[in-house]
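Exercise 3.2. Students should predict the tertiary structure of the chain below and write it as structure tokens, then compare their answer with the key that follows.

Predict this chain's 3D structure.
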Amino acid sequence: MEPTPEQSPHHAYPDHWEADVVLRDGGTARIRPITTDDAERLVSFYEQVSDESKYYRFFAPYPRLSDRDVHRFTHHDYVDRVGLAVTIGGEFIGTVRYDRIDDTGRPASAPADEAEVAFLVQDAHQGRGVASALLEHIAAVARERGIRRFAAEVLPANNKMIKVFRDGGYTQRRSFEDGSVHLTLDLEPTEKSLAVQRGREQRAEARSVQRLLAPGSVAVIGTGRTPGGVGRTVLRNLLAAGYTGRTYAVNRAFDEGLATLDGVPAHRSLGEIDEQVDLAVIAVPAHRVPEAVADCGEHGVQGLVVLSAGYAERGAEGRELQRELVRQARSYGMRIIGPNAFGIINTAETVRLNASLAPESPARGRIGLFTQSGAIGIALLSGLHRRGAGLSSFISAGNRADVSGNDFLQYSFEDPDTDVALLYLESLGNPRKFTRLARRTAAVKPVVVVKGARHSGTNPPGHAVPVSRIPDTTVSALMRQAGVIRVDTVTEMVDAGLLLAGQPLPAGPRVAILGNSESLGLLTYDACLAEGLRPRPPIDLTTAASPQDFRDALAEALADGTCDAVIVTAIPWVGENGEAETGDGQVLAEALTKAVAGGSAKPVAVVHVEIGGLAEALAAASSTAAPRPRTVTPAAQPRAATTATTAPATTAPATTAPATTAGTPAPQGAAPAPAAPATPEAATTFEATTGPGATTGPEAATSHEAATSQEATPRPGRIPAYPAAERAVRALAEAVKYARWRRQAAVPGKIPEFLDDTIDEAGAAALIEAQLATAPDPRGRPLSHDEARELLGQYGIDVRPTLPAPDPEAAVAAAARLGYPVALKTTAPHLRHRADLGGVRLDVADEEALRRAYGELTDLLGKPAELLPVVQAMAPRGVDTVVRASIDAAAGAILSFGLAGAPSELLGDTAHRLVPATDRDAAELIRSIRAAPVLFGWRGSAPVDTAALEELLLRLSRLVDDHPEVVSVALEPVVVAPQGLTVLGASVRLAPPPARSDVGPRRLPNY
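Answer key:
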């Protein structure tokens, strides 16, 4: 909306204040600045407000607005006087206004930093969170304009408005003056205000998805008059699933005399339907979609599933059509799944919705599934159905123009019918928000993700989102930091989902293997070792084993305190006549199910070869209902088995348990590392949860927790069956890693307080401001070596100085100043950090050696002016490492660590964590690279000072978190010695901070 000539040109219309928001009930609305064109809308809005609300606003009867009032409320300078409106269908439903005031309460301009604020919400829309959303947005506007406090006068009887201020989470002061409540709010965001904002965001977005998945009525717009076609198929699927709500067929081409179609009422438009329609499935050509959306919006439809194609997947013109579709739908308060969607499914008994093109609705289960691809959605539905697994909900978002994977996470977090969330994603519209939501959801239930389009460097057709420049390996590391189970294929997703939805989480990596095939047991054993598990020698029951033998062996393994999970391997057994029997899978399934029902809560998986009907029988014999809440058992040391095995154990290679350091695994082959701040698994505490996500076992809780609770045995979940050992083991390994993450996440890491005593945040801010002010390029500038040293020094990061050596005499003088021995090295960009090219001379002991080294360097590589040689004092011997921090526009600030040198770069052996990093993140970061044993005493070398390295990582994390203008830092090399470390080189780049999509008031993204 453009500014009018009456508005000051240097205070142009601030279109960046416009935002679509989700309200408390799941509907959407638009917030925007009020302009002079809004006079009629304001008058109409005010006429629909009750006399009581008007009285609360103006403290007196105020039946109508005068012309002067209308002019004052629609003319703003967008600095000292600002008004925002919430609109639905183009009409106002709420307004807020602030006026800057001085200490006496009179109108003022900057530098006055206080403003008087007042709200008015239409009565029909009160209770939807309109005022709360307006407070977030007007507070952000005020901070942008230099206002630090809001003052408000509220009548004591206006409890709703008082509650809005009280619940906002801002620091406030309250007094009673002249018959009214005087409130003052400090607008600086607090932890509480941020938590309130995100809590409201979660509830609103979850509700918006819930309205789509559980509508009271559905209209299929574009239902064909003859069998076949997309619309008619959806209508047929709705009826076949037994949808419990009301269903309507809509097509403007229906004959006027047509009353029903396939047994449901048929109408030519939504206006002919006498009742409320909650959800519309649109299956018309793209050029007719705007007409259908307008019809839906004018008749109060709450949400849309747009199956129509011809949008962003067709190029720039289609992308603009898609954006217009979203704008149109949101203007009516509706959310969209699609366009180019496959549909949605909700198997809840009270809903039974199949508004999709899937011909058969999946069975009811505990898995929620979101996919951005219709083809992948078909494959996943088919795979889950084939293996007897059920779903709680399914969303195929197509081009994902509105409802996204983030919305699905918000819904899954609180959905009581979902125990596991599976997501196939091809793009991340807001990666920072995704990792935040995934971390919160993963703390209570598993989140399994397959990321498509990993290596193309572009978004899939139809996905108009920011493209991240970070490699896929970094994306994977950041997902795992957030607790996401990242797998590579949809098959692995199904495998992991089946185990996580049907079985409890393992308490550790110890695996018992039993079965009637020695060879299959050894394959399983090898697969466990390859995945980092700790298998026990397989128990061979021999090919003569009966189902009862399987039951007894499984029951014994479940009772054995030295294992945390059991894998059962089975091949067809040999009958009395010597012929292999394909077997009665039902009998074996019943035996295994009974053993699990009577045993302790440990995950069980079955690997079978050609045993007909076993997988189906296991699925049918197992409960799909959520297990009862269970509590954790005391932490204990592994104990010996109390009973003998039913058959001699097959000899297998001995295994060595990997050393652990304070709950963080040390690399294999390493000497014990110094204690890290991570909490030991054996002493970790966490909150027990309902469903398969709960963890039990010897590493699950402290003795204190166990002493205050009683054991509850869950009902058995479905036992997953796999056709290959590798697939079962991989799924179990993911469950083990996720369970470890859950235990550690229950005791969050922290940023040590000692950092505050050695950090000068204000000093660093002043340096950054001064450097950016002198930058010739508005995009920022790199700092010189001395400038970088000074900035890093504000955060306690000491960079060893270097002195320029443009000629041999200068080199000798520099060495005399620094003291021998010294290093002579080039700093030319093409030679920097390339010792393999001969640009570094170390341990130069005296002047003669220095002159000789200088001559060799220039003879070999070029003139001093090209090489830019420097002299630096030698550092204590140690391990050369690299520490970096950078800001990616999509993912945010990232902290990285690896060893220095070409091998690590070629192998991509670098670990990553999101900023801000905690002490636990720092400890895990240095232990998660493959070359980490070098730090911990590999092959008899002295372990280095990893505690000093962790402190350096925390300091750098704090720097880039406090100052987003620091867009890139590279400390290379960092030499870590047995005692202390030395930073030999540093490069820093400053730039105006990139816009962040995960902070500020709530708003829906615009793709």
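Discussion points: Confidence is low (pLDDT under 50) at residues 1-10, 623-716. The chain is about 30% helix and 20% strand.
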